[in-house]
Amino acid sequence: MSAAGTGNTVGSLSLRPLDPLKDAELLHSWVTHPKAAFWMMQEAKLQDVEREYMAITASEHHHAYLGFHDGRPAFLMEKYDPRYIELVGLYEPEPGDVGMHFLVAPTDRPVHGFTRAVITAVMDELFADPRTRRVVVEPDVTNKAVHALNEAVGFVPAREIDKPEKRALLSFCTREQFLATRGVSL
């Protein structure tokens, strides 16, 4: 995966499967940072992060990837099957639905357009699988910044839902909606 093809100038973006033990210390510093408040792991200990990502790695329905910017760790992507994880009983899944979470690492040197490039690259990655017909997200209703990013890549809000940990804005993005934001039609 490369951001070069997404019409931005942030550099190269790539992903690899997360290694929960090797990457836990880095992830811990990200998920406990004040900028990651919506990740809801502010009070997590290193062992909690290891345990959480070992469970994700062991699941056949939930996967985590470490994202790199020009070879340096810079973001986290999770994809999940909403028939089994996160949204069970909260909406009627359709064939080809894939759930997604992403987190950009905190930085002292922000790059203009970087988060938009990351979500675009994440969506490119998810839609690279021809079985993916629609991406589903459920961010906190108060997370206005991510709502704007989601809209920029084609997500359309469906409704608010109550999850055990938050009130969320259930939103969907089809392949066609995503491609339309990039000036591509099928």
Description:
Acyltransferase required for the direct transfer of medium- to long-chain fatty acyl moieties from a carrier protein (MbtL) on to the epsilon-amino group of lysine residue in the mycobactin core. The protein has 186 residues and is α+β, with helices and mostly antiparallel strands. The chain has 5 helices and 7 strands; from the N terminus they run E-H-H-E-E-E-H-E-H-E-E-H. It has helices at residues 24-31, 46-58, 114-127, 144-152, 175-181; strands at 13-17, 62-69, 72-80, 97-104, 134-137, 156-162, 167-174. It has a 7-stranded mixed sheet with strand order 1-2-3-4-5-7-6, with helices on both faces. Helix 1 crosses helix 2 (46-58). The longest helix is centred in the middle third of the chain and has 14 residues, at 114-127. It is globular. The relative contact order is 0.15. The model is unreliable at 1-7 (pLDDT under 50).
